[in-house]
TrEMBL record:
Keywords: Multifunctional enzyme, Phosphopantetheine, Phosphoprotein, Transferase. It comes from Colletotrichum gloeosporioides. GO terms for molecular function: fatty acid synthase activity. Residues 55-383 form the Ketosynthase family 3 (KS3) domain. The keyword Transferase applies. Gene3D superfamilies: 3.40.47.10. PANTHER family: FATTY ACID SYNTHASE, SYNTHASE, PUTATIVE (JCVI)-RELATED. Residues 1-23 are annotated as: Disordered. This is Highly reducing polyketide synthase FUM1. One of its GO terms (biological process) is fatty acid biosynthetic process. Pfam families: ketoacyl-synt (PF00109), Ketoacyl-synt_C (PF02801).
């Protein structure tokens, strides 16, 4: 995905809220955006350069998040990045017994008693039944990933200057990248205690459908499960749905909550997790990655629509592209040829031929002895 970052609008600039930011309140004319801007002017390309795929720039108008390190909003996330803080912490006691699962010599075990978990300020088990259309019992049983997604989406819409009640019945699409199935695993542990509501925790389609139902959206509803690429592929699909007119706006979310050790232990058996509990990407001592939790969302519209409606614009997506590794050395090994092709394809769709105009490349960065060198090779070929 190629994007063009513009001024960030925090909560102080949400329409209907008091306060202001020196970085700008209006969007028309900010950073070169006006009613006739394609979103590509700052990069020296034009829509006419896109001779392969018709891609209209897409604006990211709002965002919400729950991340490790006590990050619950965009300002806190920016503060973490600027101050180079790390969200690593011990496994919370309400997830699983890390001492038991981290026991030395145990055949199946988790590699570390640390990871990247949401902190104790986030209650993953309880919610206000009066705020949603679910009964108290249904909320008690609800998969925490779904419950937190509802909260984060609500905040995302507010930061985008939208009133959720006014979006009901409109063609708003939802794409949710989802990973893991911890709640379904726990539900199946004792079949005799399973409640009918548990059925809706196990279906793959429910993360997106739950958001659609609670907010009354009428656009496409898609849950994406493609491992590490799930939420980014969801954004790719949402962009093209916007361009093709399948929806007028879209919510794209990603969720991963860890409350069972089973998947972590299984991934450790495959040798991809760091025994030190620290992800040292592109480092000579890299020994694997560390699993983490997150619930994030963005609200996106066609750039022309966002400018017309006076929406806040956090960033502009100039293009997206998607492929897969094909027949690589193993089922899970990256393919540098495919990665190189994907990077070049994204630039091609955006009409960008001068790769030096790309200021930053965010890598997958698995921190594994196999994945890191192959990804470096692919990036090096292009840049």
């Amino acid at each position: 995905m190629l994007s063009n970052l513009s001024t960030y609008y925090g909560e102080e600039s949400i329409p209907g809220r008091s306060g202001s930011r020196d970085s700008g309140v209006a969007v028309n004319g900010v950073d070169g955006y006006d009613s006739t801007d394609s979103g590509c002017g700052n990069l020296g390309v034009s829509p006419g350069d896109r001779n392969t795929v018709a891609f209209e720039p897409v604006a990211i108008c709002g965002m919400g998040m729950r991340l490790p390190g006590g990050v619950n909003d965009p300002d806190a996330f920016w503060d973490m990045l600027i101050n180079k803080r790390d969200g690593r912490c011990p496994v919370p006691k309400d997830r699983y017994n890390a001492e038991t699962w981290h026991a030395a010599g145990k055949k199946r075990h988790v590699p570390s008693d640390h990871g990247y978990f949401l902190d104790s300020s986030i209650d993953i088990k309880n919610a206000d039944a009066s705020f949603w259309s679910m009964t108290k019992k249904e909320l008690e049983i609800l998969d925490p990933q779904q419950r937190l997604s509802l909260e984060v989406v609500y905040e995302t819409l507010q930061r985008a200057g939208q009133k959720p009640s006014e979006l009901r019945g409109r063609k708003i699409g939802v794409w949710v990248g989802s990973f893991g199935g911890d709640r379904a695993e726990l539900d199946a542990a004792d079949p005799q205690t399973v409640h009918p509501y548990n059925l809706l925790n196990g279906f793959d389609f429910m993360p997106a459908d739950r958001i659609h139902y609670e907010f009354g959206f009428m656009g496409p509803s898609v849950t994406v499960r493609t491992a590490c690429s799930s939420s980014l592929l969801g954004l790719h699909q949402a962009c093209y749905a916007l361009i093709h007119g399948d929806c007028e706006a879209a919510v794209v979310a990603g969720t991963s909550i860890i409350y069972s050790p089973t998947l972590t232990a299984t991934m450790n058996d495959h040798g991809v997790l760091s025994p030190s509990g620290i992800c040292k990407t592109f480092d000579a001592e890299a020994d694997g990655f560390v699993r983490g939790e997150a619930v994030v969302a963005v609200y996106v519209k066609r750039l022309s629509d966002a400018v017309r409606d006076g929406d806040p614009i956090c960033s502009v997506v100039l293009s997206t592209a998607s492929n897969s590794s094909g027949k690589s050395s193993t089922m899970t090994a990256p393919n540098p040829d495919a990665q190189e092709d994907l990077i070049r394809r994204a630039h091609e769709v955006a009409g960008i031929t001068d790769y030096s105009r790309t200021a930053m490349m965010e890598c997958h960065g698995t921190g594994t002895p196999v994945g890191d060198p192959l990804e470096c090779e692919a990036v090096g070929r292009v840049f």
